[in-house]
Amino acid sequence: MKFKKIAALAATAVLTVGIFAGCGGASQQTSSSNSSSKKKVIGFAQVGAESGWRTAETSSIKEIPKLDPNFELKFSDGQQKQENQIKAIRSFIAEKVDIIALDPVVETGWDTVLKEAKNAKIPVVIVDRNVKVADNSLVTAFLGSDMEEEGKRAAKVVIDKFGKDAKLNIAELQGTVGSTAMIGRQKGFNETIKDCPNYKIIKSQTGDFTRAKGKEVMEAFLKSDGDKINVLWSHNDDMAVGAIQAIEEYGKKPGKDIFIVSVDGIKDMFKLMADGKSNGIVECNPLLGPQLVETSKQVLSGKLKDKIVHTKEGVFTQDQAKKELPNRKY
Ligand code: GZL
What we know:
Elements: E1 19-23, E2 26-31, E3 40-46, H1 52-62, H2 64-67, E4 71-77, H3 82-94, E5 99-102, H4 111-119, E6 124-127, E7 141-144, H5 147-162, E8 168-174, H6 180-192, E9 199-206, H7 211-225, E10 231-234, H8 237-250, E11 259-264, H9 267-274, E12 280-283, H10 289-300, E13 308-310, E14 315-317, H11 318-324
Parallel strand pairs: 3-4, 3-5, 5-6, 6-7, 7-13, 8-9, 8-10, 10-11, 11-12
Antiparallel strand pairs: 1-2, 2-4, 12-14
Helix pairs in contact: 3-4, 5-6, 7-8, 9-11
The structure holds beta-D-galactofuranose.
């Protein structure tokens, strides 16, 4: 089963030395590659450190001062709490950064603080997940994945394997409730399986994108419906990694007794798929540092080309895993 792999944007991740400064419940770092007052400052409010994907995104963002020494980075880890991210944005406004970049843990609740940024004449670039605001002028640009498309691709992996007429009981591990990643992937998957009358999602619960929670929820799914579940659809790889442990401990063979498809494309998931323990990976590219540099340069020069930039991503199945594994950059 061959899927055409679409070339993904790649960038090496080089960590810069950060000066640690506390910031009201979240950790904030400032990094630059050399001292000069002429630098443009990007304030980045990150979701947290919940998954392998997030770690890779953070590494890519932190390489920005190396990628372009004209930029300095102020980085804040929101620890998966919206209030921490809002605090970080307010501190970036107070520090008069040149651009605010936000990867929003959930999509709503940003109108007030983004209005404050607009009043301070600081452009806001949304990265990765998206926001839902009443006034779209609060956001200057968005760069990241088409999450709904990722959900559709995951459903197509299942349909290509079993066909539209198969009778399937599906267990769904949802991402963080209220995040565009969870909302978009669930919408895309559900819309695509509408053509499959005998596909039934019999279990669906959030594992909050983490391995630990993914394992815990899968244990509960197996306890109640272990002998009925044919497919696991996980909104990210980390929850699937946890779920695979739960499936093995339950005494079933992941990738054989239960067909598994997930989103992200982290190395650990490719290793498991190469070992036959998973069946499909929908890529979601976290290496967004280079795109944020490009978008920031365009915004600051008043020459923004596209308000929305979607990353190019592929889909991989078990037969491709061994060959693709050495190419993985995150
Ligand atoms: C998606 C990103 C999601 C990843 C998860 O773009 O926001 O959050 O799929 C991460 O691994 O936790």
